[in-house]
């Protein structure tokens, strides 16, 4: 079976991305799955909502696992924030409620904007 060219392009983008870009891709994926879960909940497609929420939870767990907690207070604070987001996604799945999704989505958008600015500044000063 041949691979879809779009899937190959996406896989290549992930495989060749720098660590900063990978974090942005994870945020984008989590936001996409949360949005899809919210749409599924609105349409009362609970099976699809469950699947999309599990995908978003997996991404948040990956973000948690990627933190080096030995690096100080910021890493610890991010871990606690990701842990809270993970908890809220679980609550959204259990209660079939969109409110926690909107909360997590807002937090992720804010983090993504901040991270994007950090990446932009690193490029501007020529840091790896």
How many domains, as an integer? 1
Rounded Rg: 16 Å
What top-tier CATH class fits best? Mainly Alpha
Major sheet details: none
The averaged pLDDT comes out at: 89
Which structural class best describes the helix and strand composition? mainly alpha
Q: Roughly how many Å apart are the termini?
A: 38 Å
Q: Element order, helices and strands? A: HHHHH
Counted by DSSP, the helix tally is 5
Q: Please report the total strand number as a whole number.
A: 0
Helix content: over 70%
Percentage of β-strand residues: under 5%
CATH topology (level 3) name: Four Helix Bundle (Hemerythrin (Met), subunit A)
So what's the overall shape? globular
Name given to the CATH architecture:
Up-down Bundle
CATH superfamily: Flagellar protein FliS
Low-confidence stretches: none
